[in-house]
Design brief:
With 147 residues, the protein is an alpha+beta fold. It has a single domain (6-142), classed as Nucleoside Triphosphate Pyrophosphohydrolase (Alpha-Beta Complex). It has helices at 44-56, 121-127, 131-138, 140-146, and strands spanning 6-14, 18-24, 31-32, 34-37, 64-75, 90-100, 113-120. Helix 2 packs antiparallel against helix 3. The chain is globular.
């Protein structure tokens, strides 16, 4: 079954703007926030909740999950295009934030990720491989002032 070309990007961060990054198992050295494709019949919130639980072991209901109402469209990397239908080249990514009071232990999904680290937002933005991920992280200071 092909993936739906709609995904979530969840910036997990603390009140003092430490950001959680995960290193991809299928591409060592590629660091990112929580991401994942929408499953059939899921709302975007359900996708975000599921991906957070699968990739970190966290229950998003215990924290503040916010839809940033930000959408990015990007061309799917060639190396991952086989996961989608034959004519699919673009994905629409919906950005969410998950605010935690402080750094908490993470339980990574070994088949998806090799490591997890918490970094100050500026360092996290420089470390991620995706430009849309970096842009979202760079918005954290202004977004955290609104809440």
């Amino acid at each position: 079954m092909y993936k739906i070309p709609v995904s979530v990007l969840v910036i997990i961060h603390t009140a003092d703007l430490q950001v959680l990054l995960l290193e991809r198992a299928d591409h060592p050295g590629y660091w990112q926030s929580v991401t994942g494709s929408q499953d059939p019949g899921e709302t975007l919130y359900q996708t975000a909740f599921r991906e957070i639980a699968e990739e970190t072991g966290l229950n998003a209901a215990d924290y503040a999950l916010t839809d940033w109402h930000k959408e990015n469209q990007y061309e799917i990397y060639e190396e991952w295009r086989w996961r989608y239908g034959p004519d699919v080249r673009f994905n629409t990514e919906h950005v969410f934030g998950l605010r935690l009071p402080a750094v908490v232990p993470i339980k990574i999904a070994a088949r998806e990720h090799l490591n997890a680290i918490w970094l100050p937002w500026q360092q996290a933005a420089r470390k991620v491989f995706s430009s849309s991920n970096a842009e979202a992280i760079l918005e954290l200071p202004s977004r955290s002032r609104r809440t």
